[in-house]
């Protein structure tokens, strides 16, 4: 058995329009396709992220995330970038708050965190 790469990450949004705007206009991820699934009253937006995808879903009344990143389960989504400082500056210009940039103790690479409209922790890492 050999796992090659991550195909996609799925995110459920509480406010589909706000999350769609965040991921497509703020993070500038290209739209692959968008479908409305009437039987589930749900949108599914596929976004390109390198060789992977992010699936953005809407569902009626989804439950809130249990707690901050220390909850059991997926902790956060991390984006590799060439220049954390440049991406942070651009996010800040677009009104996205970011944590202070830190150095990874093990790799000595820069990283920081920010959040999507639902408070999902997102990381930038060089």
Automatic annotation (TrEMBL):
GO terms for molecular function: dioxygenase activity; metal ion binding. InterPro entries: Fosfomycin_Res_Enzymes, Glyas_Bleomycin-R_OHBP_Dase, Glyas_Fos-R_dOase_dom, VOC_core, YwkD-like_dom. Residues 5-126 form the VOC domain. Keywords: Dioxygenase, Metal-binding, Oxidoreductase. It comes from the Bacteria. It holds the Pfam family Glyoxalase. This is Glyoxalase/bleomycin resistance protein/dihydroxybiphenyl dioxygenase. It comes from Trichococcus palustris.
